[in-house]
């Protein structure tokens, strides 16, 4: 009997241990691979979308106690009943919303909570989904006290079907744990170190990338419905067959077919069919397609095509159609409707050029950041609108999503405005190469490509920014990364922004297009403006000589303090930035004589926040615009160049205010007139 009691107690102990370890913690494996549900939430005849944006309850854990919320079960009941909370806006980074450095520089976990009602009407033949546009860096989500999803890698959306967790006709509570800690296995990388302080050792987050590690719920939170059987995913590939005929190849995935819990409500799979309609800008139907067999895939021919052109390459640039997808049962009953904006264009490349619709393109671009006062990296429609208007004011036709995926809303605007995108994942300054990092890096690219593959504006995938590709470990690592991306999408070229010396680089051999970053007369030979033009020319030639591939300079520039002026030019002044640009322009014009030099990208579009360091005066000041989006002197110089290039290459009319009238030189006695 005694032995049985001992065994019984031992069993209870083991069960208790199991129960304890199954409590959520930040150390448990996270769901890093979430590629379902990346269709953007859209209302239709069969779908409803509700935003949960607004003011949320908020609290942070102590830096040295990131597991506090788990141990105290903050997700089990309303946060304010357990701990004092405040309110914060969603979407927004939380760092700059407060006046304490402890909040701005917080390392570890923070918690969000919001209550909402769901109508009883949503219980009828519907699925309900909870979707997050981006939480940085990792997240755990509870609904009414029950964990429903985990996700890692910021700047990317994730969602979960919440139907079985929701209280219909009653109040619901969603709780989110957000963790901003970066490790050598995260994308991007970072390290946590212990450093001495006045209060003893404290945890410090270190990273090598040059932008602030903003954190929080950065993009919109949506609650939306679909039918029980629904359009789950859409993949399209477009091309031009002739000058006047286009084609849209499609693959459409239907969800809910294997849901045994709703068998009685689901139609026979064999009765399902798709009807696709394509509408032009005027709303006229220009093409139809029917598909009656699962898996649903096929091709839609489009007559009298209006191709998608980049900004200034055609008077009607950024032309978008609307693809309407109707899912039917039995040929009559309408189950689901989803609408997708579609641009139709061809994209080809070879060892010397990149072509859209059969025409070689020259990229007039900038690097950017999602960054603004107070909201940090939070989605801001006013800022988006201002940024795209400024891009067009400059005459730019492209930008790189440096150094992470930008919001879905910005991708939609790029499509509509004809701005080409080099779409970059979150891998920046990768220094330690490991199997776990490789898995996460591949996951980040899969999620990015799955999300953005239907965006006509995306013309390249960038797999990394300034990785340490002189290291031997980088070669097999990036060989696998490139092969993986080609497997995911072979319709776009693959690139990366390289900053190591060409004689040491081990990445360029795998890329379709070579991008390089170099800061001549800034980080190299600071103040020496006569050490730019020939150096840039020589390096571009060297990259092409080794790899025989198209070349782009994706970063060059100089920090510039707004309102600082020097004559003669001096570093940090507005005059110096403009003069440095001019020296690069001279190099680019020489390189443009070679077909293989296909673009130039200024760093940066606007000033942005960085970690505190003596090399940064209030952040990185390389923007041609201030952080509040007002122009520095170099913005006008860049505008003159980009519109002059558009006029030369695409015969785009020159805006009347690009060059201000100064004087008309006349010498009547000599009969000579030179106009500025």
TrEMBL record:
Domain Glycoside hydrolase family 2 immunoglobulin-like beta-sandwich per the UniProt entry, residue ranges: 229-345
Residues of the Glycoside hydrolase family 2 catalytic domain: 350-644
Keyword Hydrolase attributed: yes
PROSITE patterns on file: GLYCOSYL_HYDROL_F2_1 (PS00719), GLYCOSYL_HYDROL_F2_2 (PS00608)
Keyword Signal set for record: yes
EC numbers for this chain: 3.2.1.31
Broadest EC class assigned to this enzyme: hydrolase
Pfam families, per database record: Glyco_hydro_2 (PF00703), Glyco_hydro_2_C (PF02836), Glyco_hydro_2_N (PF02837)
InterPro entries: Beta-gal/glucu_dom_sf, Galactose-bd-like_sf, GH, Glyco_hydro_2, Glyco_hydro_2_AS, Glyco_hydro_2_cat, Glyco_hydro_2_CS, Glyco_hydro_2_N
MF GO annotations: beta-glucuronidase activity; carbohydrate binding
Signal peptide limits: 1-21
Family according to the record: Belongs to the glycosyl hydrolase 2 family.
Quaternary assembly: Homotetramer.
Protein name: Beta-glucuronidase
Organism, scientific name: Glossina fuscipes
Gene from which this protein is expressed: LOC119636755
């Amino acid at each position: 009997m005694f032995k049985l009691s001992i065994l019984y107690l031992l069993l209870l102990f083991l069960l208790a241990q199991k129960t304890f370890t199954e409590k959520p913690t930040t150390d448990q494996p996270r769901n890093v691979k979430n590629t379902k549900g990346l269709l953007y939430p859209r209302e239709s005849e069969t779908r409803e979308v509700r935003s949960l944006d607004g003011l949320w309850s908020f609290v942070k854990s102590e830096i040295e106690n990131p597991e506090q919320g788990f141990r105290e079960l903050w997700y089990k009941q309303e946060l304010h009943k357990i701990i004092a909370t405040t309110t914060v806006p969603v979407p927004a980074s939380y760092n700059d919303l407060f006046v304490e450095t402890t909040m701005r520089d917080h390392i570890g976990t923070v918690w969000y909570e919001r209550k909402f009602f769901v109508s009883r009407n949503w219980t009828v033949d519907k699925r309900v989904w909870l979707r997050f546009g981006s939480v940085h860096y990792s997240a755990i989500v509870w609904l009414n006290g029950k964990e429903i999803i985990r996700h890692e890698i910021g700047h990317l959306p994730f969602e979960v079907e919440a139907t079985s967790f929701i209280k219909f006709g009653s109040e619901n509570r969603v709780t989110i744990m957000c963790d901003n800690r970066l490790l050598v296995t995260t994308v991007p990388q970072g390290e946590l170190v212990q450093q001495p302080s006045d209060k003893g050792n404290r945890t410090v987050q270190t990273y090598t990338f040059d932008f602030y590690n903003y954190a929080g719920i950065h993009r919109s939170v949506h609650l939306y419905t679909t039918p029980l059987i629904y359009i789950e995913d859409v993949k399209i590939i477009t091309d031009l067959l002739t000058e006047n005929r286009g084609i849209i190849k499609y693959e459409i995935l239907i969800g809910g077919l294997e849901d045994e819990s709703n068998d009685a409500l689901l139609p026979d799979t064999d009765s399902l069919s798709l009807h696709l309609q394509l509408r032009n800008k005027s709303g006229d139907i220009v093409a139809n397609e029917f598909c009656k067999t699962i898996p649903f895939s096929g091709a839609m021919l489009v007559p009298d095509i209006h191709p998608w052109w980049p900004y200034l390459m055609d008077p009607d640039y950024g032309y978008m159609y609307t693809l309407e997808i109707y899912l039917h049962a039995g040929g009559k009953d309408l189950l689901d409707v989803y609408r997708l904006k579609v641009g139709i264009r061809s994209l080809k490349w070879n060892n010397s050029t990149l072509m859209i619709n059969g025409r070689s393109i020259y990229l007039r671009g900038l690097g950017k950041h999602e960054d603004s006062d107070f909201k940090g990296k939070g989605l801001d429609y006013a800022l988006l609108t201002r940024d795209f208007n400024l891009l067009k004011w400059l005459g730019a036709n492209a930008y790189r999503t440096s150094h992470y995926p930008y919001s879905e809303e910005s991708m939609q605007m790029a499509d509509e405005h004809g701005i080409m995108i080099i779409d970059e994942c979150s891998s920046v300054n990768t220094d330690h190469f490991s199997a776990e990092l490789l898995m996460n890096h591949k996951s980040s690219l899969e999620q990015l490509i799955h999300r953005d593959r239907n965006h006509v504006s995306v013309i390249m995938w960038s797999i990394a920014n300034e990785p340490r590709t002189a290291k031997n470990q980088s070669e097999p690592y990036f060989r696998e990364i490139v092969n993986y991306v080609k497997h995911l999408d072979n319709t776009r070229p693959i690139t990366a922004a390289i900053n190591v010396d060409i004689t040491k680089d081990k990445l360029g051999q795998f890329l379709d297009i070579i991008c390089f970053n170099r800061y001549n007369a800034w980080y190299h030979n600071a103040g020496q403006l006569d050490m730019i033009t020939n150096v840039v020319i020589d390096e571009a030639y060297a990259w092409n000589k080794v790899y025989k591939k198209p070349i782009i300079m994706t970063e060059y520039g100089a920090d510039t303090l707004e309102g600082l002026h020097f004559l003669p030019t001096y570093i940090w002044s507005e005059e110096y930035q403009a003069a440095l640009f001019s020296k690069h322009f001279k190099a680019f014009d020489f390189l443009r004589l070679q077909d293989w030099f296909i673009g130039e990208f200024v760093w940066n579009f606007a000033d942005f926040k960085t970690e505190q360091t003596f090399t940064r005066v209030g952040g990185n000041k390389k923007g041609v615009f201030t952080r509040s989006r007002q122009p520095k002197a170099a913005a006008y110089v860049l505008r003159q160049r980009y519109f002059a290039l558009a006029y030369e290459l695409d015969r785009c009319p020159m805006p009347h205010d690009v060059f201000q009238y100064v004087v008309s030189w006349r010498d009547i006695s000599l009969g000579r007139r030179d106009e500025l």
